[in-house]
């Protein structure tokens, strides 16, 4: 369990001729075990926010604290899952998952094998260990990516549109699996999505970002019992209410952008 605090994050991409302010003074705390989604108009800085929290880019201003300590780059305390599965095409499912464990210095071959197998099973890929990415569907590839990240047990998951490339049915199955994993392991999650319904189904809290430069515009608590399943949740008054409010908030930004 880990708390993540984003303090006054500003990021400017400076490519010499032109500079783009992607984030403007974003502050946000994600409590231990909390699931927070970030939504907002295209180009508002959602991915930038995730890269900064992942430690892949240094913010121009501000800092990120994990359990009170400032981060200085990527680390195994934070596992990142992208929309593109980022698997090694020349490695099998087993080898891809084992690769994740290299970062945490597990020495024993048996231990590595057993841990990899545990997470391959956890994401429902028993029997597919020796297959290569090209032999897998999109949903299976994303399961491998999730298993590879879970295998080294990061306390924090940073997910950038992880289900964006999947069909509706596969997406719903993986959303449910993700929630089950969260309940079992109490991960702290920062989840980026375009999909307001997805954010409302999965999250404890939704942050709406303003149009570029991205600021944390508005936040919505979500109190939904996801265990009743997608169909029942999607028809519940709480779900309809929160999606309406979030949609309105995002839509205001699109109008502002259109006028600007
Ligand atoms: N490497 C870069 N160099 C310069 N500008 C960049 C770079 N990466 C992103 N940007 C700009 O920063 C702003 C924020 O981009 P970012 O990808 O974080 O937004 P986003 O909200 O994730 O977008 P989308 O929803 O379309 O994926 C955009 O104006 C984008 O063009």
Automatic annotation (TrEMBL):
Keywords: ATP-binding, Nucleotide-binding, Transport. Residues 4-236 form the ABC transporter domain. GO terms for molecular function: ATP binding; ATP hydrolysis activity. PANTHER family: ALIPHATIC SULFONATES IMPORT ATP-BINDING PROTEIN SSUB, TAURINE IMPORT ATP-BINDING PROTEIN-RELATED. This is ABC transporter ATP-binding protein. It comes from Haladaptatus pallidirubidus.
């Amino acid at each position: 369990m880990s708390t993540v605090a984003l303090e006054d994050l500003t990021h400017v991409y400076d490519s010499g001729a032109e500079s783009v302010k992607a984030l403007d003074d974003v502050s946000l705390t994600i409590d231990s075990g909390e699931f927070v989604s970030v939504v907002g108009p295209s180009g508002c800085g959602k991915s930038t926010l995730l890269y900064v929290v992942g430690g892949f880019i240094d913010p121009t201003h501000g800092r990120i604290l994990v359990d009170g300590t400032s981060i200085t780059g990527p680390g195994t305390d934070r596992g990142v899952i992208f929309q593109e599965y980022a698997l090694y095409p020349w490695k099998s499912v087993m080898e891809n998952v084992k690769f994740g464990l290299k970062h945490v210095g597990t020495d024993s071959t048996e231990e590595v094998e057993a841990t990899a197998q545990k997470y391959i099973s956890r994401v429902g890929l028993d029997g597919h260990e020796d297959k290569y990415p090209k032999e897998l569907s999109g949903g299976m590839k994303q399961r491998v990516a999730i298993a590879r990240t879970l295998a080294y047990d990061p306390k924090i998951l940073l997910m950038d549109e992880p289900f964006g490339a999947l069909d509706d049915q596969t997406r719903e199955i993986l959303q449910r699996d993700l929630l089950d994993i969260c309940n079992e392991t109490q991960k702290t999650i920062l989840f980026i999505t375009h999909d307001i319904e997805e954010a409302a189904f999965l999250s404890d809290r939704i942050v709406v970002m303003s149009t570029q430069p991205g600021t944390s515009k508005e936040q919505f608590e979500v109190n939904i019992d996801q265990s009743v399943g997608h169909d029942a949740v999607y028809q519940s008054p709480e779900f309809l209410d929160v999606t309406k409010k979030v949609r309105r908030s995002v839509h205001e930004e699109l109008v502002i952008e259109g006028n600007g």
